[in-house]
């Protein structure tokens, strides 16, 4: 098994709900708490497993806003694991999930240097490295209904921009989505072979804004806007 | 990268300490300049042990959770950091036994002593290699991901060791022209290699914002990094240096680490003034300390691509 996420950049609306749900779930999870520094102070900061960045791609008028969630990619060639001198970082053979054993980590930061995706953050309160666990305590919890055995971010996403599944199974929804929508990995040249894949924005027929202007009603509105003095 | 003083001290002092041990062994092996007398050998060993200890102790200050530090010796099969720890610790018994041997026998060049000295020197040299590889294996930081890094660490460690040995020799009233020449040659070589390194990293290469986001044929600009104030990622990786100040600091570094010490060493050769040799050694350590600081600040981690950098 090779568990991971597919993130659909076409539908992600950049609401940060996944990051908040992740923080909420994992702060009491296996590697919690996720400490906040000065939460009500002048410079609030803290540990997050998931961060959403926002980019503009293309040039006007063919530009588009892309919301870009990033968490641990659970890489196949996880250098973060090989560089760790204590054995605190490990990759599970059975499902490919990369974890940090909080009782072994000495907080040297070396694994965070080795991660290209910024997935690891040192918790200054515990002095240990923290990262996405793929909600290992949810996805294997036999006490909750089967459809809820998914990472918190996937369950909460209002835009259904996240999918969770097994990339080793060619018929799993994640494998099919990657195949059909041209899913890709980030920075493939570094050869970490991340499990998480991103789906590019769908190509839509362009909306012809020039011709819309000439439609009768719009022409009248434009004329009024120009004529009325404010 | 964040230039943490603890890591700068680790590579600077332990590198110099191991370099000094290596040169002590070589000088006594081949009786360069007549070899070191027992007093000089013991001073060199004490300085080397002190330097290595300063380095290792300060490195533990970099750990956020030092109570687990003992575990750092367990993953020597995969981690260069663990290998560095194992070899650094293995250095102590050999260096200390050699010190004891010289103290009690007064024969630094006798065979059992030399065996100990060469073992300590070899382990020290391996440790420098491991230290360089800690940085050189990181594909995420192009400025470190080059064999020039361990090469630089070697040359600088040996240059520090050689200048200190020259200072010890001269201060104990014992001129050493061959050793002085070696120190000067190592300084020049290390300056040249650092220059090659700076040339090598001067142009952007490697991942760009395009491969980082997957939009390979479009211009990509950050609108919002997604956090309000600093995060661990910006604190650890966000440090940069404006090119103009980088050039100025490099000029300063070359002057302090190489230019002035070389002039001082040349003066020592003419005048036998031991104080100048000591001053040269201090300047070399200080100058290479600046070099180490630059080594960290100038390293641009690819995570910066996600915080607005177009290339690293
Ligand atoms: S994303 Fe980073 S932390 Fe996660 S497995 Fe890959 S290298 Fe390791
Ligand atoms: S910070 Fe912890 S998990 Fe990361 S390399 Fe160091 S010991 Fe390993």
UniProtKB/TrEMBL annotation, chain A:
Pfam families xrefs: Fer4_11, Fer4_2
4Fe-4S ferredoxin-type domain segment(s): 3-33, 62-94, 96-125
EC number(s) per entry: 1.8.5.3
GO molecular function per UniProt: 4 iron, 4 sulfur cluster binding; metal ion binding; oxidoreductase activity
Keywords in alphabetical order: 4Fe-4S, Iron, Iron-sulfur, Metal-binding, Oxidoreductase
Enzyme's top EC category: oxidoreductase
InterPro entries in the record: 4Fe4S_Fe-S-bd (IPR017896), 4Fe4S_Fe_S_CS (IPR017900), ET_IronSulfur_Cluster-Binding (IPR050954)
Protein name in UniProt: Anaerobic dimethyl sulfoxide reductase chain B
UniProtKB/TrEMBL annotation, chain B:
UniProt keyword annotation of Lyase present: no
GO BP field: anaerobic electron transport chain
Highest taxon of the lineage: Bacteria
Transmembrane helix as UniProt keyword: yes
One Pfam family it belongs to: DmsC
Keyword entries, A-Z: Membrane, Oxidoreductase, Transmembrane, Transmembrane helix
Transmembrane segments: 43-64, 85-104, 116-141, 153-172, 178-200, 251-269, 275-295
Documented EC number(s): 1.8.5.3
GO cellular component: dimethyl sulfoxide reductase complex; plasma membrane
Name recorded for this polypeptide: Anaerobic dimethyl sulfoxide reductase chain C
Lineage summary: Bacteria, Pseudomonadati, Pseudomonadota, Acidithiobacillia, Acidithiobacillales
């Amino acid at each position: 098994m090779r568990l991971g996420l597919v993130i659909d950049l076409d539908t992600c609306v950049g609401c940060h709900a996944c990051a908040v749900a992740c923080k909420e779930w994992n702060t009491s999870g296996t590697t919690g708490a996720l400490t906040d520094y000065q939460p009500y102070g002048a410079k609030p900061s803290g540990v997050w497993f998931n961060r959403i960045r926002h980019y503009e791609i293309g040039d006007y008028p063919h530009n588009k806003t892309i919301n870009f969630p990033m968490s641990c990619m659970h890489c196949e060639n996880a250098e973060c694991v090989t560089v760790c001198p204590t054995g605190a970082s490990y990759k599970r053979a059975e499902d490919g999930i990369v974890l940090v054993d909080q009782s072994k980590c000495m907080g040297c930061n070396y694994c965070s240097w080795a991660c290209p995706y910024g997935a690891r953050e040192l918790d200054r309160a515990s002095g240990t490295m923290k990262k996405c666990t793929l909600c290992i305590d949810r996805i294997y919890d036999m006490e909750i209904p089967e459809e809820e055995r998914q990472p918190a971010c996937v369950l909460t996403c209002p835009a259904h921009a996240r999918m969770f599944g097994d990339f080793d199974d060619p018929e799993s929804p994640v494998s099919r989505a990657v195949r059909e929508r041209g899913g890709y990995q980030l920075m493939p040249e570094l050869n970490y072979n991340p499990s998480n894949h991103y789906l590019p924005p769908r190509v839509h027929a362009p909306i012809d804004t020039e011709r819309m202007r000439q439609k009768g009603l719009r022409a009248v509105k434009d004329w009024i806007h120009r004529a009325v003095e404010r | 990268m964040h230039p943490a003083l603890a890591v700068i001290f680790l590579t600077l002092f332990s590198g110099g300490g191991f370099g000094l041990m290596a040169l002590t062994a070589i000088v006594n092996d081949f009786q360069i300049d007549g070899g070191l007398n027992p007093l000089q050998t013991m001073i060199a060993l004490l300085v080397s042990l002190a330097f290595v200890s300063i380095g290792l102790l300060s490195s533990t200050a970099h750990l956020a959770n030092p109570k687990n530090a003992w575990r750092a010796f367990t993953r020597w099969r995969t981690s260069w950091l663990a290998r560095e720890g194992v070899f650094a610790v293995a250095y102590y018994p050999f260096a200390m036994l050699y010190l004891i041997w010289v103290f009690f026998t007064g024969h630094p060049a006798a065979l059992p002593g030399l065996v100990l000295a060469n073992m300590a020197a070899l382990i020290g040299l391996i440790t420098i290699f491991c230290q360089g590889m800690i940085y050189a294996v990181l594909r995420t930081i192009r400025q470190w991901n080059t064999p020039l890094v361990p090469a630089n660490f070697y040359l600088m460690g040996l240059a520090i060791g050689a200048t200190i040995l020259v200072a010890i020799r001269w201060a104990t009233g014992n001129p050493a022209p061959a050793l002085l020449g070696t120190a000067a040659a190592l300084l020049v070589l290390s300056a040249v290699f650092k220059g090659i390194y700076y040339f090598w990293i001067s142009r952007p290469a490697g991942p760009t914002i395009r491969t980082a986001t997957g939009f390979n044929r479009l211009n990509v600009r950050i609108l919002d990094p997604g956090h309000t104030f600093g995060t661990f990622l910006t604190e650890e990786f966000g440090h940069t240096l404006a090119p103009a100040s980088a050039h100025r600091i490099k000029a300063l570094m070359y002057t302090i680490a190489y230019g002035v010490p070389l002039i001082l060493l040349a003066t020592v050769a003419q005048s036998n003034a031991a104080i100048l040799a000591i001053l040269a050694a201090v300047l070399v350590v200080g100058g290479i300390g600046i070099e180490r600081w630059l080594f960290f600040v100038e390293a641009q981690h690819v995570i910066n691509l996600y915080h607005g950098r177009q290339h690293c």
